[in-house]
Amino acid sequence: MACCSQLFTAVAVACACVSAKLLPAMKRFVSLLLIALLAVVAATAGFYIARSLRPHTDTLPAVLRPASVVGRLAPQLSVKGLEGQSIELASFRGKAVLLNFWASWCGPCVDEMPVLDQFAREHGDEIVVIGVAVEDESDARAFLARKPVSYLIGIGSPASPDESARFGNHLNVLPYSVLIDPQGVVRRAEARSFDAEELNEWVRWQ
């Protein structure tokens, strides 16, 4: 029994010595791990907070219909064109208008721009397409220098809420499209992106 007791005591002392030697290293490891985790959490939180200020359709339902503006006269809209001219929504009365609010950082916006461009080329005599960039003018111009489009482009406000809020975009979602009939009445308004077939179907409000 005495031998066993001495053995247990020796083992306990040895374990205590090993623990004492490893403890500082373990503390350093845990501290570094916590710092790394906090950095990741902070970066992730910052990313989602920034995006939450202007979400797009990757993170929201595919179709949002703000019924509050549909069936009503479209509000006034005046934005600066790329040539410095004033683009007045009221000046297009008598023609249908497709407003598309977009930004160059919005993936779905960029993806549908060729669709809008082709649509404008084919149906420009019937429906006027106006893209409103709701971001810094320099960013919009830099993007369009790389990927130009044939339809009208206006520069909206980069602040939130922007001009699209007056057209029912209360969630500040991009891309956001509004269809206005020749009498100036909003017929459709949705936060979504389109392919060619969907867009051709969407503009048929009658």
Characterization of the model:
- This protein is an alpha/beta fold and 206 residues long.
- 42% of the residues lie in helices and 17% in strands.
- The protein contains 4 helices and 7 strands, in the order H-E-E-E-H-E-H-E-E-E-H.
- The protein has helices at residues 2-53, 107-123, 137-146, 196-202, and strands at residues 78-81, 86-88, 96-102, 127-133, 152-155, 176-180, 186-191.
- A 7-stranded mixed sheet has the order 2-1-5-4-3-6-7, with helices on one face.
- Residues 10-22, 43-53 and 56-64 have low confidence and may be disordered.
A few lines on this structure:
With 206 residues, the chain is an alpha/beta fold. The protein has helices at 2-53, 107-123, 137-146, 196-202, and strands at 78-81, 86-88, 96-102, 127-133, 152-155, 176-180, 186-191. Residues 10-22, 43-53 and 56-64 have low confidence and may be disordered.
